Amino acid sequence: MTISINRAAVQLRLSATLRSRPAITQAIGDPTLPDDLTNWLGRLLGLHGVPFPWLVPDERMLPLESIRFFRLDRTWTAALIDGAYSIGRNLSTAAATASMALDHAAAPALNRHARTGAARIRAIALGVAPLAEDPPVISGFLLRSAIVGANPGLEVNAFADDGTARRLLRLDRLGTSSNVLLALIAGDAARIDIHEPPEHLHFGIDSYRFESGKVVASKNVHPFTRTDPVGIDRSKSDPKDFSACFRANSPRTMRMKAAAGVVGAANSAEMGFAMTEGVGLVSFRRGTP
Amino acid sequence: MSTTIVSQIDPGQLVTFIQQRLPGFADGQYKLTISQHLEDHTGKPIPGAPSKSSDGGERKPPPPLKQTYTFAVLGDRFGLANPSSIVCTFPDNAASGEFDTVLPHVVFATPTLPWARSPMDGDHVLPPIGQDADGDVPTWLAILVLDADDLAAFPGFSITAADATIGDLLPASLNSSSSLGAKLSYFAGAKDLSVLDPGDTLTTPIRVLDLPLPLFHDLAPTLDDLSLLAHVRQVSLVSKPTMPGISDIGEPAGEFAVVIGNRLPARDKTTIAHLVSLEGLAGLLPTDPPAAPQPDDAHKVVRLAVLRSWAFTSTGSTAAFTDALLGLNGRDPHSHDDAPVTALRLPQTSTEPVVNAALQLGYVPLDHNLRDGGKTVSWYRGPLVPEAVPPGRLTLPVASADQALIFDPSTGLFDTSYAAAWTLGRLMALQDKAFSTALYAWKRGLQRQVVDAAEEAVLAALYAGAQRVAAPAALAVTPRPALTQAESAPLAEALHRDLLLRLQPETVR
Q1: What is the ipTM of this complex?
Q2: Rounded distance, CA B121 to CA B190, Å?
Q3: If pLDDT is split at 50, 70 and 90, which confidence band does B494 have?
Q4: Which residues 203-262 in chain A show a CB within 8 A of chain B?
């Protein structure tokens, strides 16, 4: 017995499918996207690799030593993603080409995967769970300052109106030795705290004078406890005299062992702990327009 | 275990200070010897069994098995192989501000680096296993803080580091071209070149600093000080920018080593700080109280390898982190006023209300070369906008960038923002061949699914009356055993029968 299938019937059916978006959607179902494509689109959605002039078209918008807050225009990033997605799209003036119909049907899935990719880049880098839901709003700031270069680990915390913490989707220096920091925040941030990196806290004393051959130096030291709970009490401070902690023959060279005795530190950890200055923190609050 | 202190410096910010992070192996060369030694149950050694040789005589038992390996643990010694080992210095290079009450420091990305070598002589760099919980281990790195006053006190030397090679650290007896002369350095008692690490050659370029011994005694830390001048800080990385190799390796917390200088910078002077190696120089270090100077000390010079130098100026004006942030946007750091401009837009205003509105929304007028060769000015705005943009200004996907151009009849100008974004995305995709081919393959796969679905639908219509039958039982066995030729024949027959049954169309065209 021979069975023949008429090719024309399939063609007919195919063009009917391609004319109807629900039919295509039904045919392709909910397509998965390979991981490398998801990651690539996620990076693009997070504006990785977008040249700086596309972000800030005029330098006067972000002068030296400035911070600028913004909302992310999701239509712009959607157009960016669609540009990348347009590879292989048959571009013609006729809007209803088969490839266009197909791209149309698969676009929701592709965009969803791109958002998944964007949300997990930073989460994977830090080994934390990615954001469960796509944030409806993405806000952020650009910081252009010498402190970005001097403090590669400076920390950013963002908060919502009600004080709950907002997740960072991206916090990157734009270029390895650049002074520009780009932050993308999931949700609208009402308050942004920028603080000094704790690994970079410096050792210091409060005052130092060298008068008539003698050093006069002091520091307010915060008491700390070694037993549980270990910690420092920043509310209390104890002025200590460091005048004897300098060498007679070199009056700016500190006798560390003597200084450790003054603050009561038994080892380098306690010494580091007692001698560091507090973290500098500046809060930026969204004003009322 | 070493002492750790947890500090809640700010809410949500936990810093753990750790006394030290000792490496598993200190840097250097090692010999590993493995030998086999058999004993019976009474503890008597069992000699290897004597074997018969080919001529029938008895051979002596073989010696116990023994194998020796040599290996080296390499690490930075006279210079940093990777400049990014140093995360940052304080004060920053070329910074100026109120630094006369702070001790300069260096932050390292590798928490074990300050203890990978030792200022002590000899091989016993690390404390024996099990004893590392006690006492501090001195670091081999020190920060020497110098300024023009030191130059005035000791004329004829330089406070800046000079270019040299590793060979210049060796005495003339080991390297005839060495510039060391009578200066003191790391390899005073060296007998041969085995003191160098594998990979280091006499010509490897380094930076060196020559200091008169009395000045070195004034500035260098004592051995006890060295124990207090380095520690490790464990911090959360969750709020930090991406730092390659530190905060992008899938760990939410990281450790940094901090090495601190021991001298306050002079006020109103340019200070040069040198991170130097004190490996094996414990004998040269000053003591507290200082030992009586030897008569010939004044003529001795110490040569040190410099791993990093940086300069800063200590002035009266404060240079705190917070001041820099409060002074952003041209604001007076000490005022209580809000900063005037904080939105990402051009600072200009226009007398034209329409233009002004566009500038307020973050648009920038840019020259636009039209497709037909004409020139015009069009609006462009990047993805970072001052105010929320209502959605729905563009329907995607589009067939070309032109379709994403928006014409504003009120100004007679184009809004090129989305067209530019679309073109950029397309170019970036085309530039990355791996991505564009993979994306195209994915699209082909979807296309295949649509074609398959169409074919299936036609087939289903054709054979609407055909009866669906279960797959032959022979196929239902999993895992399917391999069939011999003889076994496959009935299966093929069964399949054929089922297939015919299945394909009983009402009409066959």
Answers
A1: 0.90
A2: 12
A3: low
A4: 203-208, 224, 226, 230-232, 234, 247, 249-250, 252-258, 260
